[in-house]
């Protein structure tokens, strides 16, 4: 890993300190600077300004509405509208040049459903459709007709997001948030939070790796897979841990005809087109907690688990060659696979935006906006994220999201 060139902040006190400057932290900073009622100071502390190992940069960059909880469908719907309107939103921050789009590829998601899971999948589809999603459930026959390259012999059907699902430029979204936030007055510093100081039930200051003590009015934990470490600095605990996810880009001797969606197999393996290549990954068999700095690759995942699953589901994937690979981290919420948003129930100025379990990129516009609303107005003003609050963690009451890849 690179040797960080840490820098000191310009001030000794900020109204809001955000720990983590990738897509979640930068979304919070962006929405704060866009709120006319906020005139405070913002410091974003990011360990590595190259974002080389950030979950944002290493993600599969997808967005979908196929969730089992209505709030997650709503969150993604706002995320989609934000992505579609990204260039227009960012135009004021690209004076003299065209604001970039995010290259949204609306290919959809296709979940391959086992016969025993078909009834539950139909129920999820009906829920999603009742909320305005375009998901459809296809029986094996129509599924084969629509995707003739797919093996449907052992399937009970497929749940397909025909519209409003796909993938986009993850780094572009983060960069846009970051650029707009900085132009709006947020200060970014490459440094590391090494400790927090509390006075009673409030965080009063942040200790940095360069030795500074920075006072803060509120602390936002947007540290991704390091969220548990940051919470521990305040004597708090959340069920969020790093989980490794292996990604491979491969070429195939046989092309896939037609508009290929992101296909999710029941084994946990997924695959989607990546220009002339394909991107695939899986949920590892050994899916336990990882060290925050462990990005070691396990190549056997492709040879022993991913390729067999791909070949079984898509028989034309019989001759593949890996071209690139990397390891990323999920910030995995072991309680219920859902994000934790909002203040701690005792340390009221410690704000969580943690435990996205692989959904952080697509949920960043709505969650960043929600956290900013809490900080400025003390309540949600747009989409109510109350079901995702810390309270359920304290009560040990899971709010389970079933549709996790």
TrEMBL record:
What stretches pass through the bilayer?
12-32
Keyword annotations:
Membrane, Oxidoreductase, Transmembrane, Transmembrane helix
Pfam families xref list: DAO
Stored InterPro entries: FAD-dep_OxRdtase, FAD/NAD-bd_sf
Query: Could you tell me the EC number(s) of this protein?
Result: 1.-.-.-
Any keyword Oxidoreductase?
Answer: yes
One molecular function GO term is: oxidoreductase activity
FAD dependent oxidoreductase domain sequence ranges: 15-374
> This chain belongs to which protein, by name?
NAD(P)/FAD-dependent oxidoreductase
| Species for this entry | Roseovarius aquimarinus
